[in-house]
Write a structure and sequence with these properties.
The chain is built from eleven helices and twelve strands. It is of the alpha/beta class. The strands form three sheets. It has a four-stranded parallel sheet, sandwiched between helices. Strands 3-2-4-5 form a four-stranded parallel sheet, sandwiched between helices.
């Protein structure tokens, strides 16, 4: 059996930066004897989060911070890392009031989207985010404005576009959605809204991984998509792999490998933007030993 990796896979720039900042904070904490937390899981990958936990980096309840409810540990002189998805202004303010030293690991591309949303809202435009309303990035951007709306697909977009037809609108995409999904929403708004702009906010890393997956589909008989089950971009990679018509599995670790995966002559591996290198390496090694 031949195992072929996608040309581009695994951790994106923003996630690598957040992981690096977290490890640096953990090292500094051992010297200064302070505590280190992350605002919600730093990375949408349980294994990566567990590895950080082992370094003394604990996870705060982001929803409780956003809502201003629930009990939190004493954060005086503690370090709190903001994950790559970002955080709302209210959450940042609450952390500061609790005495935390904030290390902002928000992805620069997410920061750009936050700034765009604030800019257009000040101009009086209706800001419309395109993405998963439950996603941390979307929640964070919502918390930088006061009247932003969210659409999660063509059906929601159609209803909203019909209501906003006479109001200037700007579309801002979640950085990790598929371009095809964004394009479908753009087309609907262009057909119904007189004055609209669609900002280019999808991260190139998302497109690169999708493009590399398409290339990989033509080279293999089956596909393994590696990443957290809670990672939206990994789920989209798996959906694209299924669309290719090849057998495809979404797995988190080598423990999920099955004997049936070894029956193929060529099997491809790709990984979501939150997937650490060590997990991909372990899966490839284990699969090779099973063949």
């Amino acid at each position: 059996m031949q195992i072929i990796r996608a040309r581009v896979l695994g951790m994106c720039m923003g996630v690598r930066r957040a992981d690096k900042l977290a490890r640096e904070a953990a090292q500094e904490a051992t010297r200064t004897d302070c505590r280190v937390y992350t605002y919600g899981p730093l990375i949408h990958n349980p294994q990566a989060v567990a590895e950080l936990e082992a370094l003394g980096i604990h996870v705060l309840d982001a929803k409780a911070i956003e809502a201003g409810t629930g009990e939190l540990p004493d954060l005086r002189n503690a370090v709190v890392l903001i994950r790559a998805h970002g955080a709302s202004l209210a959450a940042l303010s609450r952390l500061q009031k609790l005495g935390a030293h904030i290390v902002d690991a928000t992805c620069p591309r997410v920061i750009k989207s936050q700034r765009l949303a604030r800019h257009y809202e000040k101009l009086g435009w209706q800001v419309v985010l395109v993405g998963d309303p439950r996603h941390g990035e979307i929640a964070g951007i919502l918390g930088h404005t006061s009247n932003t709306l969210v659409v999660d697909g063509p059906e929601t977009a159609l209803r909203m576009a019909e209501k906003l037809k006479d109001h200037p609108c700007v579309l801002i995409a979640q950085t990790t959605i598929r371009q095809e999904d964004y394009d479908a929403v753009i087309e609907i708004f262009q057909s119904h809204v007189k004055n609209m702009i669609a900002e280019k906010t999808i991260c190139p890393a998302t497109r690169e991984r999708q493009t590399a997956l398409t290339e990989l589909c033509g080279q293999v008989d089956a596909l393994l998509i590696v990443g957290g089950k809670n990672s939206e971009n990994t789920k989209r990679l798996h959906a694209s792999a299924v669309d290719c018509g090849k057998p495809a599995w979404h797995i988190e670790t080598a423990s999920e490998l099955k004997a049936e995966m070894t029956k193929f002559t060529r099997i491809g591996i790709t990984a979501g933007a939150s997937t650490p290198d060590f997990i991909v390496d372990e899966i490839q090694k284990t699969l090779s030993n099973m063949a």
